[in-house]
Amino acid sequence: MAMRIIRFFLGQCILFFNWLTFPKPPQQSAAAQAQIVEQLKGLTLYHYRACPFCVKVRRALARLGASVAMVDAKRDTAAAEQLLAGGGRLKVPCLRIEQQGEVRWLYESDDIIAFIEAKLS
Ligand SMILES: N[C@@H](CCC(=O)N[C@@H](CS)C(=O)NCC(=O)O)C(=O)O
What we know:
Helices cover 53% and strands 17% of the residues. The chain is α+β, with helices and mostly antiparallel strands.
């Protein structure tokens, strides 16, 4: 019980500081935004709201002026089941990558950020 309260409190702190210091997305033309949407098509981020590694990925996306589809695997039990069945672990963040009819699952926040940066370069 005490651990749950501590974890909840820490999660709220993470969300608060993330909100306070959330990076401003770069100014982009509509054409540049549309290009990013196209480059990141087929990507879905499985995340938890207050997970620090997920926060890191969401902040990196904002810094890049990018966004991907997101599902909250804590609140959405069907998404949690998809993650476990597809990726093999109930661990977040995890990026579901659907390309040319193939699906793969990428764990590790640093690898996810590197993958997205490479997609946009
Ligand atoms: N090294 C990983 C750590 C991810 C991690 O520990 N995520 C936690 C949530 S904050 C988790 O899903 N833990 C469950 C598990 O490891 O099975 C990363 O950078 O993505």
